[in-house]
Amino acid sequence: MQKVAVYIDGSNLVSNLQQRGWPAFIDLNYLAGKLAKGDKLVHLLYTFSAPHPNVPEDIRLDQQRYHDILRTIPDISLGEGWRSPPSYDEKAVDVKLAINLVIMSRNNDYDVAYLITGDSDLAPAVDMVRQIGKEVVFVYFDDRYMPKEKQRFSYRLEQAANRKISFKKKWARPI
After folding, report:
1. Which of 43, 66, 68, 98 maximizes the CB count within 10 A of its CB?
2. What gap in Å lies between CA 51 and CA 154, rounded to an integer?
3. In this structure, are residues 13 and 23 in contact, taking their beta carbons and an 8 Å threshold?
């Protein structure tokens, strides 16, 4: 039995789910269990920041409610970033994910890491984790049928990871 860690870039996950019309606020423990497939889930990290101030009020409130729910679930570690004016881009979210991914691999806390993101900035961390001897599985959203401007597939992450698997709609069980 392998030790499994699941790393989720929350903004990437939610926006991909919303683009496809799938439930956006999902049960992360259910998702992690589907990825672990009977192996021992040892860590689940969800990174996020506050909603962008330009997001409509109802969507912002839904996102805040989801984050509040996640804060009450003991099996989920949260890596919270912030928004930096004037553009209100996310800050520290990917860095927190990368640091956690590398440190836990160095500590031998997991054998396999499932990484849900589309951000190629994480490729150097994935390279380092593989050098340490751990497996990284890139969980991607199939963009074949999306308009080019909405596609988020990272070819650099595909190259860095040991393997890739496509996110399945059935994993998006609403919370």
Report:
1. 98
2. 23
3. no
For residue 159, give the amino acid letter: Q
Assigned token pair, 84:
């930096």
Going along the chain from its start, the domains and CATH numbers come out as 3-171 (3.40.50.1010)
pLDDT of 44-103, one tens digit each? 999 999 888 888 999 889 999 999 999 999 999 999 999 999 999 999 999 999 999 999
Q: Are strands 82-84 and 89-91 parallel, antiparallel or unpaired?
A: antiparallel
Q: Check: CB of residue 59 under 8 Å from CB of residue 14.
A: no
Interatomic CA distance for residues 73 and 71, integer angstroms: 6
98/10 Cα distance (integer angstroms) = 14
- The closest of 165, 174, 173, 170 to 6, measured between CA atoms, is 165
Kindly report the length of the chain.
Answer: 175
Residue 92 tokens, joined: 């520290």
Kindly report the pTM of this predicted structure: 0.94
